[in-house]
User: Fold this.
Amino acid sequence: MRPLAVRVRGLTKEYGAHRALDGIDLSVPEGAVYGFLGPNGAGKTTTLRILSGLSRPSRGEAQVLGVSVAGGDDAGERLPAAALREVGYLPDVPGFYPWMTAREFLRFSGRLFGIARQELDSRVDALLDLSGLSGVRGRIGGFSRGMRQRLGIAQALVNAPRLLMLDEPTSALDPMGRRDVLDMIGSLRGHTTVLFSTHILTDVERVCDTVGILDSGRVVAEGPLSSLTMPRGVHRFVLEVSDGADRIESALRERSWLAGISRQGNSLSLTADDGTAPQREVPAIVSELGLPLVRFETLETSLEEVFLGLVEGGGGGR
Amino acid sequence: MRGFTAFLGKELLETVRTWRIWVLPGLVLLFAVTGPPLARVTPAIIDAVGASTPGLVIEMPDPTWKDAYAQWVKNLSQIVTFAIVIIYGGLVSGEIRSGTGVLVLTKPLSRTAFVLAKITSAATLLVTVTILGAVLTLALTYSTFGEAPATVLAVVTGYWLAGAMVLLAVMTLLSTLIRSGAGAAGAGFGVLVAAAALSAFPRVAATTPVGLMLAPSAALAGRPFDAAGPLLSGMLLAVGCVAAAALAFARKEI
Assistant:
């Protein structure tokens, strides 16, 4: 089992009578690109604010790179300096100094980490290239939202962090800006652990390998993306022949594993209790009946179906 | 104090590159430039008003360097003092509201260093422009009146500056405790009004920082005034306010 970059147990945050986080558990493996999914108001930002040391939990434990976020060595600081040096953070609405240039901001960020001048110069050049801002000479006050977001990711990488936490990095971007930011995140795979909050499912499907789903302050699912979208209990198939669909339907209805069937023209949708029996038997039936097969495939559960099933259905299923 | 030097460098650069370089320096230097000539022509203007009104006789003494210094002290004590309250109402909270505070405070910059760099930068600007303004006032007073005692100007300006530093420390604390810059400025005005009221009591004025509000005009008029008590208590109050601001900021959720 991989070591954990972030480990959260029973984390609770209350604002007066409102409980923003209700005893959540999270495990972010080192090296993962972890999609922290949830509808607006689910508690994603609150979690990231606690992990980054901006806010205190009401109860529970949270460890970042093995260091407790509640165990600072400086009064009032939640994340000790040693851990802060290895973490990069981008808030949901990053604020920049509009009078600085991108290069100046990255240099300033690097100086806060105490990075030596020569090393900082080369890192700044590399990050400006990575973020597509190397040719931009103007001040940040004139940047587009997409440029700011790319600069935000670049500043979070200036210390070459072991853990990068990004809060909704693509939420307000146009399709091209989103693509650029997702490409940047994807390019970090294998170099750093990325914890990336979002409510955009396609972004998670595109770049994440591990997913946690948060709803109303509770984690309703967590695990590798492939295991979350793997069929469980009910398996779905689609079968299409060019002729004789009624004969196949009759033959299939005699099978014990069949849970449901519907026909539309020469296309049949099947649900089964068993995932392997239909794969073994359906092609044989088609062959026995001598019918021309057009298509037979297993339908995967999409992340959207999983997400909506958990969030709208109360989340008790997984 | 991690990150203090880097953050102070940012603060000083910000001072030079933004509106900060225009407002306070502009105000102080404007008063320095206009004070002595105004002191010179004010009696003539009043004489002219008297001459144009039948039956009204106004006798004004000839203006001297003291009038130029009085003008300087009056402008500092009233307008520049109010400007400090307004400008620094958002000294700490401004970065939290704009979101820049979140980016820097999630790096290894200690919150104490954040607060200290803020007040150090503000104090550097205030001291620099006050000294520049005093030098300008000295030179223009000499050229206008042929006499300008440097020690007197240094003492009266020094007393005002000491009071302004205490006010800056108070504003640092208020801008840490109150999220709105306007709210902190309002509270700062409240502090000034309370201090002015308390300065009417001689015993309070002799032993607390409110005495610094009376010290410049007393020194200029040559009235005996022991400033040791107000200076010492003012220094203690300033240190206390900055320490309280650092402590409060360290515990604050951002």
Summary: DSSP finds eleven helices and no strands in chain B. The mean pLDDT of chain B is 94. Chain B touches chain A at residues 2-3, 6-7, 9-10, 14, 17-18, 95, 98-112, 247, 249-254 (CB under 8 Å).
